[in-house]
Specification:
This protein is an alpha+beta fold and about 260 residues long. It has two domains: about 60 residues, Arc Repressor Mutant, subunit A; about 180 residues, Beta-Lactamase (2-Layer Sandwich), CATH 3.30.450.40. It has nine helices and eight strands. The chain is globular and about 55 Å long.
Amino acid sequence: MGNNYIIPSLDRALEIIGFLAKQPKGCGITSIADKLGYPKNSVFRILKTLASKGYIIESDRLYQLSAKFLAIGYSAVGEAHMVEKAIDVMRELRDDVNETVLLGTLVGTRGVILEQVLSTQPLKVMVDPGHNFALHTAAPAKAMLAYMNPEDQAKIIDSITYTRFNENTIITKRSFIKNLKEAREKGYATDLAEEIINLHCVACPIFNHKLEPIASIWITGPADRLQPERFDEFGEIIGEFALKISRRLGYEPELNGHSAYE
């Protein structure tokens, strides 16, 4: 389709939405305008329009996406009732390991949390649904990418900005690809404090009836409780619960020899 069909104001609005999706703490008008190269008055009008429709929240002159985009995220997953089909399984997994359990998916070059079930321990991780996470550090993103078809996987890997958060962060494409291969071999993916120090995660993918990884379920907690020597144990447990959710979404591994959870 040629550029003659593109509506400039809509094009700018979508670029602003995409930019704000990567700014969980929000961003000011000047910063948005400078980063995207748009006139400030244009950015101002677009933000005010989005805010009037409930898609943008303004606080202290900072603008961020509202939870209304989470509803759109549910639709984008392609499984309208995923949370409803997963929530009881998430509670069972939480009761089994007593760590916070989360459900998330990919939206473009970011991940988004759809739901959480909190650990009952005094020290626990709590993350609001709708929160965005980087792909190269997060176990749930790795779990999905590891089982994605090569073409789609390559596009996402090429689009990632490998930001360094600490000394544990994977910062090269080559290392990330190696990490994904290891995740596929094991059947689960991990986050070894790659973004937040002393916080570990273990994740398994969730598949639909087309054998597509459309989400992940994972546990997260302090590094002294989620120790690397127990990752195989946790991976096996999470895989059992992930399979239960996948079956509810039409996944039938017996019919085609698909063995993600073995």
